[in-house]
Amino acid sequence: MREMIAFILMGIGVAFNLLGCIGLIRLPDLYNRLQASTKCVTLGTIFIMAGVLVYSGWNGVGIKALLTLVFILITAPTAAHALARGAHKSGVKLWEKSVCDKYEEEKK
Amino acid sequence: MKRFTLFLALFIIWLLLVYNRPYDTVAFKQNLFIGFLVSLFIGIYLGDLIPERVYKFYSPVRIFNFLIYLPVFFWYVILANLDVAYRVLHPRLPIRPGIVKVKTKIKSDTGRVALANSITLTPGTLSVDMEGDTIFVHWIYVRSEDVEEATKIIVERFERYLMKIFD
Amino acid sequence: MIMTIFVYIYILLLACFLCLYRIGRGPTAPDRTVAIDILGILVVGFCGFLSVLTGRDFYMNVAISWALLSFIGTLALAKYLEGKGFDE
Fold first, then answer.
1. Looking at the 3D structure of chain C, how many domains does it have?
2. Does C33 reside within a domain?
3. Among A8, A80, B30, C31, whose CB has the most other CB atoms within 10 angstroms?
4. Predicted confidence (pLDDT) per residue in B18-57, tens digit
5. C positions 33-72 inside 8 Å of A (CB)
6. What residues make up the domain containing A60?
7. In which domain, by residue range, is C43 found?
8. Do C83 and A89 lie within an 8 Å CB cutoff?
């Protein structure tokens, strides 16, 4: 029973990871790709780690999985934020069909 | 106080890392001793790096509010992922991206960082830069370019929870 | 039952190859940086699967340190894109 729950959690995680990478291929510009892939891959890896925690129980492996989960939950959005800011400052333009860019107006 | 908090956090993380049954082996005692010394050293030398007024986070009311915030946050994260899945798998890519400007009422720096991280992980939004109380948000489907209205849609669903935790 | 893990690992490998496609193709340097960041997080999940498959715990140590180093590497790349020094 516990193994079933663990495998279902891992399956959800792997499906979200794959969706995030499809988004990385399909979406048109850097910011959209960053959005899709950061969200999906972060949640996918969190689900995989939760699956490892359920599978192995409260021992060395499970606790390390829990620490990795918390760590990824904190650092992945920060890394995405830093990348978006760096890319915008280095002059990456938005997709040509974008609606507005308030940040560009503010910088002038 | 700051130094003690950093020491405590590091020591707890170290204890979780070396967690191993049985406890009465020599290796476990050695691990405990070295971990204590190293966390004490780092806590004394680098304690200035963590935020001021850290004593606020020892209050039980804030911890309780944080525990209320967690399920709300996870609900929005799962919604965000289903939203992304819909947009990615749709053949015509229903996106309308743009960068909008929102304002926040949260005063403390830690609270603002938590708000920016929450915005990044929730439906269709990614925080790009922050200047004072202004956050620039990349929105995958812009519903309103107005500052007030965008603030109402993006920020207010977290602000009332985070205000109780951090202010 | 353990065969399920193999299926998951192959799907994750497919996701990694999609990332590699974006790294090789992506027209500018920032595009490649985003793909490298995502690849770093995918490898952490991979280490979790290997740990379940082999029953050894040192793969989780690899996962923790990989997550840390990938985060620091991404920050360094972002600073490089911004065109500033590391002491800012």
1. 1
2. yes
3. A80
4. 876 667 778 888 888 898 999 999 888 887 777 777 677 7
5. 33-35, 37-38, 41-42, 44-45, 48-49, 51-52, 57, 60-61, 63-64, 67-68, 71
6. 2-107
7. 2-82
8. yes
Cα separation, C35 vs B99, whole angstroms: 22
B21 near B54, Cβ under 8 Å?
A: no
Is C46 within a domain? yes
Write out the two tokens for C45.
């999940």
A 38-77: CB under 8 A from B: 38-40, 42-43, 59-60, 63-64, 66-67, 74, 77
Q: Is residue C27 part of a domain?
A: yes
Q: Which of B98, B103, B159, B107 is nearest to B135 (CA)?
A: B103
Strand, helix or coil for residue A106: helix
Return the residue in B93, B126, B144 with the most chain A beta carbons within 10 A, the one to mutate for interface testing: B126
User: A100 to chain C, minimum CA–CA distance in Å?
Assistant: 21
Q: What's the domain count of chain A?
A: 1
Contact A40 B95 (CB under 8 A): no
Token output for A80: 């995405």
Chain A residues inside the 8 Å CB shell of C49? 10, 48
Percentage of chain C lying above the pLDDT 70 cut:
94
Average pLDDT in the A46-62 region? 87
The tokens describing B83, both together, are: 């939203």
* A82 contacts C74? CB cut-off 8 A: yes
Contact between A103 and B101 using a beta-carbon 8 Å cutoff: yes
The conformational region for residue B53 under phi > 0 = left, psi -120 to 50 = alpha, else beta, is left
Task: Grade residue B115 by pLDDT with cuts at 50, 70 and 90.
Answer: confident
* pLDDT digit string, tens, across residues B51-80: 777 677 778 888 888 888 889 888 888 888
For residue A103, which of A89, A21, B29 has the smallest C-alpha distance? A89
pLDDT of residue C88: 46
> Cα separations (Å) of A20 from A32, B82, C58, C63?
11, 11, 28, 20
The amino acid at residue B130 is M
